[in-house]
């Protein structure tokens, strides 16, 4: 089932007086359960595309439909609902709250969505291998550990889609592989749709589909 | 430690607490600054109440157990008062005590000294002072002060003379100074005294002063003032609200002006705290956004944080305010605890909370417009955006007001001061940016790093604003403080009379001749009225403490003012003229030729004068009139004689011996002047305590602000240290930064001090007051020195903090 549909997406950025055409007439479909990899060189617009798909960035032209609804028309409340219930995010630099423990960072997401389920949090911590570190603060954890917590946070509200922006970009190869294995497992076992941005071609093997983005245009 | 949190509010509170505790040093700086803001705000808002309390207690100490005093008007002919009428006709009077008070020359073993006689029945003194009085015939009770000053002890014999009769009394008791019985005072039984003088012992109801205690002060006072029986006497409320208000106006208006500027400064200092509080929360708000928070949870965390800061700081600030106020009160001589009006405390809290909520709301609203990723990723220091449009508009308002003067004096002055301060704050930053941009053209670390921040970093701009406003506050507080002390010195310099002989009921010229046989250089008759009520055509009413009329040729023997400038037309006017202090011209819009009506005393009311001009004096409790030239016309007589002598002490002693029996009262002019000034000194002492506290606090705020700057730039300093910048280079760069900031301050500060100097006095008109107060060069320089020291010390500390950054810790959070 088609979960995300993109039609003629165009995105521009103003840099000084120049208007840069970052994304050029992008059209693509993402099906439920896909593990979509977006790859491309630096500056190709892949992160911008990810942010547009995930409502973190506005679009200038075109449409992005999520489950048939155009998210361009969504008001603030609907966008928030999306992020609470349907989307999960994993960033390159984790973006955990420094003054909350691992457990609390995950709890935060469920408090915002008003779907508090402590058992689920514990279960997720176990899944990502962080159960015994649940009371650690981010500055007490390694990068890999922080990223695991970030993944657990992204999953806690049972999202339909996870957007991962270079989730291994800050990690060494071994830890990066562990993260990718985890994501792969979640995709396969839980049928979670994952859209991954990476510049590392080695990770493409985890993906069911790949999009190549060069100068804002994609090649499938 | 994870807390079991299912409640969203508990979560928010937890995160707010964690944010506060995560940066303990920053939190400490914020709380200290906010506490000082609360303390100073409270004191400035409550200053009139504090002084009102102090003046009330002062009168209570002076007249313990008494509510109303009836005495002879020292410049009127009345002598004795009979209390029987009061006790018979005033049911609400608890007691009326008839005392006979007189200044007497005492002799102990050939040592001559003055004492204040208090004579009444023994039980009356017991009632008055709430002590036991056990003295026999020809025994006296003296105060500890008299005993100490003259080395007297129980059993000593004292000789004195009253109304030509010689007396010898033995000291039988010494009591601590209390209420009206204080200073060089002694008590003897009135029965003995009056029997010895008049051969009568039934004059116990008589005295020259009656002390009254009543449960219904207002009612009794009103009745007494309307009672014909006492129309010749002075009837005084011990706690006179109007008099206290008049005292407050006299002493506190100028202090209130300083307070007004201080309050504005505090708002600016408060503003500087927001950036540092919000800096870390912004990133959290961004994360909350990505998690779908549409209920502004992040902003609520921010408000909770402020709530915690406010709660702690309000408590500390209230304590500090009370400590400072009570230290000042103790210095003034008030033994009891002074409590700041609880309404003021609550008002302070509400105002500061409102400012915080408002500021927070504006800042967060601006921030909210940014998208979620920007909120998370943009870790730059908050960049300043200048609003030149508003500055241009304010400049236009300033120029229009300066040139056109569209409103009345005080409103024009307020607009000029407010707009000039606003523009100065903006201009100091513009100057900083210009200097930074000039320097940034070089390829140095200072140019790329320090000047970039000076140009764009809002934290640094805020810090410069705080330094500027601190300079203004320090300058104004010191100006007011030294102005008050200069005023006191001016009064001392302008009053040159040694002695005043008062209570003269039937003056004739022979009296002058008589006095001149003593060791005196000048003796001139004078008409003196005290505490006169002045009414204007505009229905304004005010009190003047001393109205004096003496021959113009004799005036400068006793006073330093010039009164020779009066127009011939005014001099020849059929009405007597009056000269008032120059401040009345500004406060009431008076002009030469205006008609002034004065109640000279209970007998002489609505006496009309023509305004002849203005004395070049800041002391507005003194006025001069040429009424003495029209005595016959108005059936008046001189009621006092001013006397100067090369040897005033000896002259006073001889004059008391010679004239005391005629019940003339001799006042040591300079001692009386010191007594009048003593309250001013006490007010000044209290204000000095406040000044020291406020000046120190603002110097501390300057120091704190530099620290806040450090905390906001700590991360960036780590990055350049990682790149290899040595401590020596950092020191040099920080020193240059300090010099650039201080240079901006010098330029802008001098202009603003000049403007404030010119227009602040006109803002005093809002308080119905006017003084030619200006900031002089030395005060301005001294203020600059204080701020220089504060800023320099803060930068030294700043450098030590940069030097000791733990790179390994900082890099982990880059």
Q: How would you portray this structure in words?
A:
The complex is a heterodimer of chains A (220) and B (814). Chain A has 6 helices and 10 strands; from the N terminus they run βββαββαβαααβαβββ. Chain A is α/β, with parallel strands linked by helices and 220 residues long. Chain A has a single domain (2-219), classed as P-loop containing nucleotide triphosphate hydrolases (Rossmann fold, 3-Layer(aba) Sandwich). The radius of gyration of chain A is 17 Å and the shape is globular. The mean pLDDT of chain A is 88. Chain B has 4 domains: 1-59 and 243-379, no CATH class; 64-237, no CATH class; 383-488 and 678-814, no CATH class; 504-663, no CATH class. Chain B is 58% helix and 16% strand. Chain B contains 26 helices and 20 strands. The two termini of chain B are 25 Å apart. The mean pLDDT of chain B is 86. Chain A binds chain B through residues 51, 56-58, 76-77, 79-85, 87, 89, 91, 95-101, 103-104, 107-109, 111-114, 116, 134-135, 139, 153, and chain B through 1-2, 5-6, 8, 11, 14-15, 18-19, 22, 280, 284, 286-295, 297, 371-373, 376, 812-813.
